[in-house]
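Input.
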Amino acid sequence: MVSRVEHAPLRVIYGDDSWLVRQALAEVLARCDGVEVLAICEDGDALLAAAQADRPDVVLTDMRMPPSGHGEGLRISRSLAAIDRSIGVLVLSQYAEPAYGLAMLEDGVDGRGYLLKDRVHNAGALEAALRAVASGSSVFDPAMIGSLVERRDASDPELARLTPRERDVLAAMAQGKSNASIAESLVLTKKAVEKHVSAIFSKLSLPGEEIASRRVAAVLRYLGESPHPGG
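Output.
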């Protein structure tokens, strides 16, 4: 897992084929005192070349851009996993497509994230996501988690067994939140969250791994699988 100093300057390279988005990101990142932008790219090939040359802490990328026009964020994530697994990758996309996020996890969940552009509301939120990915954590948009749950909900008897509160905890787990963070956001005690987590892993037949990034991988992969036979 990647380990970064909490307040060290964060070295970032980002790419997007939209001139307006690139300008907007330049302004947003300029407001982040702890972020150093190494390069700004217009396509996936340029972004990969810059990442290989400069070895940033994080690559911030669109999912769909030239040269392929689709899945570039996924290609970049996979290529960097083979070159230098310590480089974090945060996809910033307008498409809430769970298949992309799940495919990113095939090379490991550490240091990978997927956020929707219209749900990043301020510079602080973007910097926090970048730092989380740089430190080896996972960041996935709640909308993606929700779509995965909805996709499985009607035909999966195991998912149907979860209580409404357990579903809330499941979504928070899939975002990479610790038990303490889940307790704070859902206004629960940490002990109550631990009980919910235990129940979730039991009902979904998942290993009770407490390492946060592995919990994310387990939950997302479960939600992304085809429903069980007979379900």
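Residues 2 and 85 are 8 Å apart (CA to CA).
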